[in-house]
Amino acid sequence: MNISFTVNGTVHKLSVRPDATLLTVLRDELDLIGAKHGCDGGECGACTVLLEGQAVSSCTTLAVAARDRQILTVEGLAQNGHLHPLQKAFVDCGALQCGFCGGGMLMAAKALLDKTRAPSRDQVKRALAGNLCRCSGYQGIIDGVLEAAAVLRGEVR
Amino acid sequence: MGSGVMLAAFEYLVPSCIDDAVALRREAGKEGRFIAGGTEIVPRMNRGEIAPTRLIELSRLKELCRLDIDGNGLRIGAMITHAGIEASPLTKGQWLALSDASGSIRSPQVTNCGTVGGNVCFGVPSADLMPPFLTLEANLYLKGPNGERYLPIGDFLLGPYRNALEHGEILIEVRLPSNGKNFGSAFCKAAKYQGLGLASASVAIALVLRDGRIRNARIAIGSATPVPKRVPDAEQFLEGRIPDDETLCEAGRLVAAAAEPREDSVRASPFYKRKVLIPLTGRAITRAVTRARAG
Fold it and tell me: Residue A1's closest chain B neighbor by CA?
């Protein structure tokens, strides 16, 4: 099936099998490997991308269902070689260890901060509830999101 | 791909009217599937458990995308997502049990995609919207090859993962009748993460509070029976009673007695499910009573 969609601002025209997930098309066709292939069942959140600004699991979204829509992956966060405040805060807070969950965590956090300027710690936890991390214990990640929110509000540095 | 392996023919169709969707589904036979949010079907396809050869996407059917109130009550299109239910100002007041249920789904990635229609039609024993729909006496508006019909929600699920849809039939919307004054509804569940996540057991209740006494109580349980169901014994017991501790406890015991958990149930033992239904019932009743007072 011939479709087109926009990924990180670039329009892509593709021919995809209807049962191909958005995740496999991003990784295998477009070489965007920031969304990770974890559980393949919408359980772990490592494949989270934004579809029209909403956090979705790209492993449970068919590529054809994303036709004509805007997709943002973790590769689209940094602008002109500058890390996004979320990425910078993750580094500063030592949020990640192995990093496998990181792309998904960043995208779920981005969806939150796009809507909520000053989230509480509980709101951050809730927004990241669909993303599993098996090494960090989450606290650094939550700290990072709160720090990034403060930076985006112009309150820090 | 492109390695010379023969791939089964696979169609993905996006009809823009219900009649076309019904005809396309009927034509496809067993190998056809409707697809909405994909949160149940796509993982199963990924695991090779199902291999449909025709998927029919429902997103362009505008009748399925409505959420509104008319003179008869609330109408929820099958394509409305859990996030849509939780965020809507229409699912507040008398229908708060719906917000409770959709809001109790843990992951935003699921609530953003998963739909009301999928929750109802897939027939998962833990489907969170089923107990509220049972207590709010939902009517399902269906359209199929033989025309349209209404089916009370209690007649819809025939067993786990089995429903009463005829071949080619589509769930268009869920209709909920309006309720009078002093009416309250609530949904509570036991789950791993502060009440969020897949339910180990759940309870929904709808009731009227008149002169401090419970009237017309309707209780349903989920995740503790093959499919969610009403508990008439507890409903009759509550009639005319004051919601004191003793009443809540006895109602909880009657609800627990109606549970039929599987011996090999995954998320909690049968013993735990029966036990937890007692406080869960009390909590749901208390919440509904508080809301009935406010309404």
Answer: B12
